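FYI - complex with pyridoxal-5'-phosphate, inputs then prediction.
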Amino acid sequence: NSPIRAVDPEIAGLLDRELERQREGLEMIASENFVPRAVLQAQGSVLTNKYAEGYPGRRYYGGCEWVDRVESIARTRACDLFGAQYANVQPHAGAQANAAVYQALIEPGDTVLGLALDHGGHLTHGMKINFSGRFYRAESYGVNPETFRIDPEIIRRRALETHPALIIGGWSAYPRIEDFQAMKEIADEVGARFWVDMAHFAGLVAAGLHPSPVPWADVVSSTAHKTLGGPRSGFILARKEYGKKIDSAVFPGNQGGPLMHVVAAKAVAFKLAGTAEFKDRMARTLEGARILAERLMAPDLAARGITVLTGGTDVHLVMVDLRESDMDGRQGEDLLARVGITVNRNTVPFDPRPASVSSGLRIGTSALATRGFGAAEYEEVADIIGTALAAGRGADVDALRARVDRLVEDFPLYPGLVQTD
Ligand code: PLP
């Protein structure tokens, strides 16, 4: 029972380095967040030792009395938080949740219709070499080429052309709130099921700051670790009638034993997401994204061909459009990394550059809200990013890095935490 520092100093050292990296930079990858210490504790607990194939009260292993309680609490909390009739909290990650949704709702070879990957959709919504594109006939809808927004008329036209069995809402790199009711009506019109993958904006939904897909979608899937701020994992919500099919699609359809330590961590995260403190965090997340979008639409950036897709944001992320700029996505990502800010490059719709380089940056504000940022700090970080991108190769990296250092010092991450004792 020696501590990791004694057993495996090599890995312990790398854990320390990663904590240091997270503490010393500004994390603005839109899909990332910092879990509360209570979530870390649940996830690092002895529940990792327990096999619990099956569901509470119906397990294929003995000794499940305590993990049964944990999973039942997690399910109830997920239902309460999102106003859902049914929840499955076992998916190991978002991709596994989505695989189970397909298996529960449609048959291999059926047609599905989701947002195109290069317009902001996710791999599991029909990418060619993903299971979703290999086992199902994947069709896609794009954004409106004028507004760059998702347009119900385009979805409707594509649905009438392709006759999908399943229409997919939800996205990974898209900055706007869209109309789930309109999508449900299209699904009804063409006789399709309607599924929303709310992985990115689940925290905003939980806080009541984004319309919920739950009243409209047949099934809603999500990750727990993006805006929602829980452990890296997935879950599924649905109307009661789909419960049995989803349960068997998750286990034994796609997974073996659930990761009960992660299920416990999800339960903690669902509890925290119902608090006033969480709602305040989500409100700061949104405010930060609006401040960032505004700064990135200023004349100094426009002069360099840099703008913001859709002219703003309704959610936790901003999509920077570099199509008209001589700086590509990779160069933008690298420049911000040198300043101490982590973002990811991303294709934008109708991107003239290859995906490996791309013409977009996806910048998210949730992790910094968790760190404590409010309007004043977002103004500062927005100006650091704006100044860096406007200057490009000529940016004064040292001066900008010094401004990042001040923010980092003022908002310490996991104060006092030593993870390798
Ligand atoms: N769904 C959406 C919309 C996502 O953005 C992501 C992750 O990026 C996933 C699903 C997949 O989640 P995971 O990485 O946990 O498999």
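The mean pLDDT is 97. The first strand starts at residue 26 and ends at 27.
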